[in-house]
């Protein structure tokens, strides 16, 4: 670890907002900025033997180092055995774990109801001679397909279904069989859930969503504590070159300072919107892990600190869903989630997700909750005509 990655005295024991504001900041140096600006460099001065920390821009960059330190502090407060590697996108991070840990003849368990690009990953893994088994997120079906697997991949809460699985329980079962466990922590963010503390070997996420929260950058990361496994992930990043630009890395670090503020507002509003949808006279099959009546609530409340900003519900038909989206004034009809501006989409338009035609994924932003609830209810009313 190089000096510039040392932080100002550690952030253990502090509140989430304080940790988010201070995460990854270097020791103060007179006349230097508190958060150093992006370092644009393809290479670094390097006389003599090529030793680190900074040699070539595909391998390391000081702006990544600060961001990686920040994410480590959020994913595993107070631990110094956790390493984070940042990537160009969430998919780059997911692929880095899958393709660096698995080789021909290995078996992996993937969620059958996870992020919509996973079926493409599945096809690529199979093309390389890796056996892929699948299990749904909820209901512990993973336990039945773990024997002989090298890696268990779980996504909790799942996107877009918002099901949840018991991370501790699955980790225990996987480790007893010698399998590593990776958790996609995108939806929860490290302020909502800390998979490494629940025993997982990797916490992997798209930073494109609530972590950075402004809908203006793509980013991914892998946090892990097994040195050998993380060395393989690092090697994969070097081979594939799926690296974030310094500007994106710096914007991400800057955005993390407000993560707690954004999550507090957005997640509280998500609960308020979920309650309003639940109380609507039609049964909209509302899902939100923080709603005490939700099937995910029990396990979620045992392993999560926050329940995210995504709410889902189902309108009776595709036409009704399209009319609803069209009638919204404060919520953009757009994909992705986690940003300060609310978005909603008819998820079935992409194909690939096992959802009904009228299924809506709504990402609650930082607008005032009463404005959002009024907009959503008026669009429901409008679209019912
Ligand atoms: C968006 C998303 C990804 C992929 O992230 P990108 O940054 O778009 O590559 C992976 N997993 C989940 C759960 C996601 O929502």
UniProtKB/TrEMBL annotation:
Keywords: Lyase, Pyridoxal phosphate
Region (Disordered): 1-21
Molecular function as annotated in GO: cystathionine gamma-lyase activity; pyridoxal phosphate binding
GO cellular component: cytoplasm
Signal sequence extent: none
GO BP of this protein: cysteine biosynthetic process via cystathionine; transsulfuration
Family annotation (InterPro entries): Cys/Met-Metab_PyrdxlP-dep_enz, Cys_met_metab_PP, PyrdxlP-dep_Trfase, PyrdxlP-dep_Trfase_major, PyrdxlP-dep_Trfase_small
Acetylation among keywords: no
Family, per entry: Belongs to the trans-sulfuration enzymes family.
PANTHER family in alphabetical order: CYSTATHIONINE GAMMA-LYASE-RELATED, TRANS-SULFURATION ENZYME FAMILY MEMBER
Protein name: Cystathionine gamma-lyase
């Amino acid at each position: 670890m190089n000096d510039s990655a040392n932080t100002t005295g550690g952030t253990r024991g502090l509140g989430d907002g304080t940790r988010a504001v201070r995460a990854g900041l270097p020791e103060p140096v007179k006349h230097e900025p508190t958060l150093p600006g992006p370092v644009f460099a393809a290479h670094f001065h390097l006389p003599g033997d090529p030793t680190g920390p900074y040699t070539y821009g595909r391998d390391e960059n000081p702006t990544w180092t600060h961001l990686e330190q920040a994410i480590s502090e959020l994913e595993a407060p107070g631990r110094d055995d956790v390493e984070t590697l940042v990537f160009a996108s969430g998919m780059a991070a997911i692929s880095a774990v899958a393709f660096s840990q698995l080789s021909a003849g290995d078996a992996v368990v993937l969620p059958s109801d996870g992020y919509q690009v996973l079926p493409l990953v599945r096809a690529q893994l199979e093309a390389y001679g890796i056996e892929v088994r699948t299990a749904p997120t909820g209901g512990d079906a993973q336990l039945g397909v773990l024997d002989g697997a090298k890696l268990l991949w779980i996504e909790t809460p799942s996107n877009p279904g918002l099901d949840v699985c018991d991370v501790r329980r699955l980790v225990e079962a996987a480790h007893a069989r010698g399998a590593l466990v990776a958790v996609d922590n995108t939806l929860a963010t490290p302020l909502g859930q800390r998979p490494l503390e629940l025993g997982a070997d990797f916490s992997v996420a798209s930073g494109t969503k609530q972590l950075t929260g402004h809908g203006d950058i793509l980013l991914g990361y892998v946090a892990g504590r097994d040195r050998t496994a993380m060395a393989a992930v690092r090697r994969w990043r070097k081979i594939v070159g799926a690296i974030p630009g310094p500007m994106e890395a710096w914007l991400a670090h800057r955005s993390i300072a407000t993560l707690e503020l954004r999550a507090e507002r957005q997640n509280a509003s998500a609960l308020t919107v979920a309650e309003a949808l639940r109380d609507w006279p039609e049964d909209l099959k509302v899902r939100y892990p923080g709603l005490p009546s939700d099937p995910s609530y029990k396990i979620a409340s045992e392993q999560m600190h926050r329940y995210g900003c995504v709410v889902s519900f189902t309108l009776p038909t595709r036409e009704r869903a399209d009319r609803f989206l069209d009638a919204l004034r404060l919520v953009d009809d757009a994909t992705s989630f986690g940003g300060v501006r609310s978005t909603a989409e008819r998820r079935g338009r992409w194909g690939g997700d096992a959802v009904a035609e009228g299924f809506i994924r709504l990402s609650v932003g930082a607008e005032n909750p009463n404005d959002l609830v009024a907009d959503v209810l008026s669009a429901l009313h409008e679209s019912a005509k």
